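Quick one:
INPUT:
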């Protein structure tokens, strides 16, 4: 399967992106890839802090987004909800659901509280992240060996994001 992404307005100024994909792994493995610092750093973000409900973690994503996020829900291995600290664009939420489907696992990720006029950037970004997750499940070690930082995206992620942005810009916002 390929990543399926949608965007929708939640009001005049804020919206949400939702992406999903089906992975050839069991739910326990996908949960570990999405919630443990060692596995997250292979494909999406460097995460530090106390990973428990109510705690705040610090993250630096391959996209250069960085900041704190509070863990509001962690129902292993099915559901996690994070709230990003208020910033220039306000408070946001990042939520993920995992569902076992036979020998595969579906991952659905939704980010809310995004500027509605920039949803296509976020849609393309999450699409690229889920493709990176697929690659990380298929190989050992990091998929972005050149690294990334708050001021420098992972080159491979950035290239794919650039390719996808125009597709998401043309896509409808529901």
């Amino acid at each position: 399967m390929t990543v399926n992404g949608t965007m929708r307005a939640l009001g005049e100024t804020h919206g949400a992106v939702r992406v999903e994909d089906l992975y050839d792994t069991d739910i326990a493995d996908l949960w570990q890839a999405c919630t443990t610092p060692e596995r997250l750093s292979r494909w999406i973000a460097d995460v530090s802090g106390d990973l428990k409900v109510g705690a705040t973690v610090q993250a630096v994503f391959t996209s250069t987004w960085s900041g704190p996020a509070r863990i509001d829900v962690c129902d292993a291995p099915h559901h996690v909800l994070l709230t990003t600290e208020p910033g220039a664009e306000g408070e946001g939420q990042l939520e993920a659901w995992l569902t076992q489907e036979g020998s595969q696992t579906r991952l659905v990720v939704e980010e809310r509280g995004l500027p509605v006029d920039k949803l296509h950037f976020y849609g393309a970004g999450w699409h690229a992240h889920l493709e990176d997750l697929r690659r990380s499940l298929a190989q050992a070690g990091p998929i972005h060996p050149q690294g990334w930082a708050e001021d420098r995206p992972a080159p491979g992620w950035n290239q794919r994001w650039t390719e996808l942005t125009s597709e998401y810009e043309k896509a409808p916002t529901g």
